[in-house]
Amino acid sequence: MMYNFRKTFTILSLVIFGGMLVYNCEPDPDSLGEQLFLDGAANENEIAYDVTAFNIDNNDSIRSDASKLGLATLGAFSESQFGMQKAAYYTQVRLPAYDPDFGASATVDSVVLVIKPIYASDSVTTTTDENYIYPEGSVAAKKVINRYPATKYGRTKFNNGNLTVKVNEVTEFLNGYSDVAYSNKIYGSDLELGSKTFNGYVNSVAITKDSDNSSIFTSEVGFRIPLSASFFKTKIIDKKGQPELKDVSTFIRYFRGLKVSVTDVDGYLVQFSPSTVELIMYYKSIDAGATASTQKKYAFSIGNGNAHIGNYIYERANSAVKLANSNINSTTGDEKLFAQGMGGNSIGIKFPAKTIQELRTLYEKDKAAIISAKIRMFTDKAAWSNHLKKPTVLTILQKVMDKTDPNKITTSFTKDLLTLGATPNFAYIKAYDLDKNPAYYDFTVTQSLKDIVESTDGTLDDYTHKYFRIDVGNFLQSSTGTSLAGYQFTSRPFSLDRAVFVGTDPNNPDKDPSKPYEIKLRVTYGTK
Questions:
Q1: For residues 111 and 283, what is the distance between their CA atoms, to the nearest angstrom?
Q2: List of long-range contacts for 318-321, beta carbons under 8 Å, 24+ apart
Q3: Which of 128, 15, 115 lies closest to 71 in space, CA to CA?
Q4: CB count, 10 Å around CB of 461?
Q5: Residues 451-470: pLDDT tens digits?
Q6: Cis before 516 (ω within 30)
Q7: What is the model's pTM?
Q8: Which of 112, 97, 98 is nearest to 281 (CA)?
């Protein structure tokens, strides 16, 4: 069983009203047209129509501040279709209480930054040392280490699965928790505070005394990076009683935060919840009335209330997506479509005039009613033949351009999500054959199409200024768990997924059997 996401970020429930369902059979008509099938009331027909599908270049930038960053990402990964992606993480640090008293003659023994990557909890290797000697006081003890593989995306065995992780002090103010920040901004950082090789595994440690089996030390599952003890002695301990430690506003401008990054340019990506990151300082000091120093533990505040920012850097040179983005054709469409989370490409889809006219003619002359309409999109069998998992879910939104100002665009849920979102078993997307090549996805656009084609008052919805936008990621639920948080709240800012899809080929007539995977609008209609 994979690590429980609710421990890292509650809002990441994948329940999308009725849910996202995965089938290995043909889709059924949606509830808008079910009544037409009752008692043989309609004859079913299905026809595939052309759509115009094109790439959307997002300039490799997306909001990645704390309000958007459900999971932080760390690592680097390179492949030919999308190029190199490198992910780092910025976080503020706060004191648990201000104007702290560390005691007399305080010295810092060690400092560790703990990140807790998502891991496979059902795959554990346990190592036990019955003859361990705990160094503080040379105590005879037993040490038990449980090791779990972290969940990785990319080339997991590259460089023997090792990433070099480093931590730097941030020199630029990160603003507040609620302030907007974008993924392509690099904040100033200076002194390296520590580094460690991450081998792709996370550990928990438990040390108990041999004499009475009492606990000496425990650590939850995570990856511990040792930081400079002398830095924290100077930066924190030696500032006791001074203005820098008196209040939060002064402190976060004095100690502006930490940057966690990797030195590698290839390998894999791992993710962790910002709310679970820990910064722990172990020190000794003499308490009031005492004559000898004692060991103490000081936990800084990293999680809630701090600025957390994902930093994503891309190198697209010689990649397929770079070439595609240099030749985007939103008029007749692009042959290959690229979708990537974390600021990468989106996909745009429009209904061409010929398609709408054919459907209107069918509606007006043959009295045909649209029962079901799906946009079916296949992964590219050649370009996306690899070991990477295919996206299990994508989002679809309605975009409307202002008729007088094309640069002014409004965004909303599709009519289908707004109309049928609360309907039991409704799914705006269904994914098929995810374990095969190619996989394909059906997006429900029934109501959206009916509004354009069908009319009861003699007027027809104008469609020329509208299009759909498809993104890697998932819609997030509201804090109550009873509805979606809003069209703008998705997992796209931290989704690792990417894929290449078959787009629009204007030179491919419908009768050409050699190109069966072109993106199409599949309409089921009934005539009474």
A1: 9
A2: 318/80, 318/83, 319/80, 319/81, 319/82, 319/83, 320/80, 320/81, 320/82, 320/383, 320/500, 321/81, 321/82, 321/83, 321/345
A3: 115
A4: 15
A5: 999 876 667 778 889 999 99
A6: no
A7: 0.90
A8: 112
